[in-house]
Specification:
about 150 residues, single chain, about 60% helix
Length: about 150
């Protein structure tokens, strides 16, 4: 099968990839992808996808996809994972709702209480119809992020 995405690394890119592999300080998938690119380099070893997949321990489709990303998006695009354009689940608290939560948390606690608890804040957000339902854990994560 003819290779559609030919990998040609510059000397600087090759050095960067070798350094990444030898130091071993990057994420495991990045090191594997760096190894794929080094082995697929047409000016270097120029291995086939099947040989690379066998040596690195990946599926041949993954090897092909790493090649493709290098050609289409450059070195950083080949090493990094693509960010989701749209998250699979929308955020429960957007900016305005988050501001209401923070204002509520900074306000005086309900009568008979010395402070707000996460459960009380979650219940109050539902009571005020800021959200339809929310867990105390979402409240905790939001407050932790903003403090």
């Amino acid at each position: 099968m003819r290779k559609r995405y030919i990998v040609r690394l510059t000397d600087a890119e090759r050095d960067q990839l070798r350094q990444m592999v030898s130091k071993g300080r990057a994420a495991a998938y990045k090191i594997r992808h760096a190894n794929v690119l080094l082995l697929a380099d047409a000016d270097g070893p120029g291995w086939t996808d099947a040989q690379i997949a066998e040596a690195v321990g990946l599926h041949p489709f993954t090897v092909r996809n790493v090649r493709k990303r290098l050609v289409e998006r450059g070195l950083e695009g080949a090493l990094a994972r693509k960010r989701q354009e749209r998250p699979s689940r929308e955020r429960l608290l957007d900016g305005k709702k988050e501001a209401k939560l923070i204002a509520l948390a900074c306000s005086a606690p309900p009568e008979g209480r010395t402070r707000w608890t996460l459960h009380l804040l979650a219940d109050k957000l539902v009571e005020l119809r800021v959200v339809e339902s929310i867990s105390h854990e979402t409240v905790r994560q939001t407050l932790k992020k903003t403090s």
